[in-house]
Amino acid sequence: ENLEKFGALKAIGAKGHELVGMILFQAVFTALTGYGLGLGLCTLLIAAARWRLPDYAAQLTFGNLALAFGMVLVIAAISSYIGIRKVLRIEPFDIFRG
User: Fold this and answer.
1) C-beta of residue 95 within 8 angstroms of C-beta of residue 8
2) Which stretches of the chain are DSSP H helices?
3) Distance (Å, whole) CA 19 – CA 25
4) 5: Cβ contacts below 8 Å, ≥ 6 apart
5) Per-residue burial over 28-37, b = 16 or more CB atoms within 10 Å of its CB, e = otherwise
6) CA end-to-end span of the chain, whole Å?
7) Total Cβ atoms within 10 A of residue 83
8) Which locations, inside or outside the cell, does it occupy (predicted)?
9) How far is residue 39's CA from residue 97's CA, in Å, rounded to a whole number?
10) What's the pLDDT at 98?
11) Whole-angstrom distance, CA of residue 25 vs CA of residue 16
């Protein structure tokens, strides 16, 4: 959705590795933010359930956390790869033609 902006940066003179760095930073930042928010909400929901139902038996184990983190990284890697491919293929002057 930001191809026009990346095309403009490419036309200005931004190198491919700089654009790749921007995309990877955005992907990692949003992945870690989403993982942290999801983990926090999950913890709050388990605490609320235990408060409401004392016999509630749910746990967050390190294995579950690691598996979820790995899946978040895989999703971020795939989506950033698709974005990087599109940005590196774009011709900057096609953006300005309209």
Assistant:
1) yes
2) 3-12, 16-52, 62-89, 92-97
3) 10
4) none
5) eeebeeebee
6) 15
7) 21
8) Cell membrane
9) 45
10) 61
11) 14
